[in-house]
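Look over this entry.
=====
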Amino acid sequence: MPTRRQFVLTLGALAACKKSGTGTLKIAVVPKGTTHEFWKAVHAGADKAGKEAAVEVIWKGPLKEDDLKQQIEVVQSFTAQGVNGIVLAPLSDKALGASVKGAVAAKIPVVIFDSDLQGQDHTSFVATDNRAAGRLAGDHLAKALGGKGKVVVLRYQEGSASTANREEGFLEAIKKSTGITVVSENQYGGATTESALKTSENLLSAQNAATGGVDGIFTPNESTTFGMLLALQKAGLAGKLKLCGFDASDKLVAALEKGEIEALVLQDPFKIGYLAVKTMVAHLRGTPVEKRIDTGAKLVTKDNLSSKEVQDVLHPPS
């Protein structure tokens, strides 16, 4: 059994190791959720960056994207464990502020990714320019509708900065067409496909979509897009109304190929995870990093789906 002196010396050596930057860096990556295909691609990118940089990436987040309490607890737990850095996609642009401030006070830097956080405590922000990406969808839908018609927006959930910016960017673009009327923009689909499906069905019914009350639809993330697609399929309206969605899964891409979805705005989730971890590693190793890093977005239709540029995003290198 080690003596008290040996135990104290061991603790001192560990502390010195961490302080000097030797040993394997531990970087905690905390997504909004872990079930959507988007987050699985982010995870793959984060892992690749970790292997390249010879650091340990610890991936942990809430199961569903509405479990704010669990995400806060995960961040606080990683802070207590004394990881070297935290890479976080906050579920709320306000509610995670105190946890991030606590991490930084404990000398643990934080890189925010995917969705912005209010305040200046974090080291960098790695994400799609979400407002610009929303405008891509708005411009495309306006053209697809020939500059006239009735449009609905199914929002995601309150407090999510990334999707709120997409929604506002879309509305900025679509409202430039004087012949287009936005007949609903205040309904929220929530964090799951199930909740989005229910809201979509109610929204389509309330706007008399089956009898010409809706011509075009915008949905700002994977779950709202899939929920709306299911509602359109159940109502026999898939392909008849022009749906512009966000993000991709096998089922959404199949619907795009069949003409049931007009367009998808693709982020590059693999690149987001990869650059977020790379940015944290650079910071921890003393290299200056940019305050905001735009990972780009692409508008995908049936016409450009098979292009190498799009396929590289859908099927990133391992």
About this structure: Residues 138 and 171 are 7 Å apart (CA to CA).
